[in-house]
Amino acid sequence: MSDIQVVPGHTTILTVDDQALVRLALSRILENKGFQCLQAENYDEAMARLNSQAVELVLCDVHMPGRSGLDLVAALADRIPEVAIVMVSSADDTDLAMECLEKGAYGYVLKPFKAREILIQVNGALRRRMLELDYRDRERVLAQKVREQTAEIRESRDEISFRLLAASEQRDTETGSHIRRIGLYASEMARLLDWNEEAVDCIRAAAPMHDIGKIGVPDRILLKPGALDEQEWLLMKDHTVIGAKILQGSSVPFIRMGAQIAVCHHEKWDGSGYPKGLHSTQIPLEARITALVDVYDALSQKRCYKEAWPEDQVLSFMAERRGTHLDPELLDLFLQNIALFREIRISNSDEDAPTREREFLHPLS
User: I want to staple 273 with a disulfide (CB 3.0 to 4.6 A). Which of 155, 166, 210, 267 is the partner?
Assistant: First the structure.
């Protein structure tokens, strides 16, 4: 760290002591070395100086009438290391010296002091100040880079998800807004479950891919305006397995999660779902989350084959399926926080679906 240099002419030091002769002696020692000096005789005057002028270091007496030097150190705790502090005292007291250092002081000098002792302590404190400021700045830059890289990773993850979904965009009746909402609902549930941000981001990108397997369902079934017969329904159910095959085998975490969601989002808590008839916690948590929010969204929105249900009817329908179709604990958590999900639904409505679909499925166009 030899590049850390103290430049006296650019450094202002405040000497704080109730004795004018001590303040004068300290100022002379420092000014002879090119430092700029200010003086204060007590706590209040010192704080006034510090609040009105830029000061790099404070040389402060420990014992002063009224509020002490320790009080000053405590008051300046949130300004360290912008302001370095060195204590001066006539008390040769190890415990007192340790208390000063523990409170944030960078040094402790005994009276009567010699010029060399003062200059060694001052230069040491200023170098430490500059090192700590440099370290903090490096941490700030590093944190910013981490934030930027995290944002880039998130954008890349979203784009991959969007591109995969674009393949089935023209073959499904669901809107881009529905796809977007599913990701937002699922990520909000993950936050309520205290998932870490990486996992939250994963499910936000993975949950919208729950129906990607519909790309493999024949148009005559997928786009049929009426009810499906038994054979057609069996083929429609295959979209879960098809979706898993599309996404399986990836080393990318959110695509692996998407594969689990695709194959399991029609499983039911009581085991009556498909394709495997899994029950309760056999069903991956991410799939249980997606199943729940998909029911909420599907019933809440208008489609060509139905009108939107009022929210109270949607929630009543979901409550009736607590412990049969839906995970009871997840449903309870969802209902307890319904205001969050209502806001997502309202803020991402189907009214401007064409615009949202272009933005969501073709972000770079």
Answer: 267
**b/e sequence 27-58, b meaning 16+ C-beta within 10 Å:** bebbeeeebbbbbbbbbeebbebbeeeebbbb
- Rounded Cα gap, residues 44 and 364, in angstroms: 60
Whole-model pTM: value is 0.57
Residue 15 forms beta bridges with which residues?
A: 39, 59
Span between the terminal Cα atoms of the chain, in Å: 49
Please give the C-alpha separations between residue 67 and each of 62, 70, 73, 111, 153, in angstroms, as whole numbers: 10, 8, 11, 20, 53
User: Tens digits of per-residue pLDDT, 184-222?
Assistant: 999 999 999 999 998 999 999 899 989 888 888 887 887
> Which bin fits 243, alpha (ψ -120 to 50), beta or left (φ > 0)?
alpha
Question: Domains in the chain and their CATH numbers?
Answer: 8-140 (3.40.50.2300), 167-361 (1.10.3210.10)
Distance in angstroms (rounded) separating the CA atoms of residues 18 and 39 = 10
Tens-place pLDDT, residues 140-172: 877 777 777 666 666 666 666 665 565 554 444
Structure token digits, residue 127: 């170098």
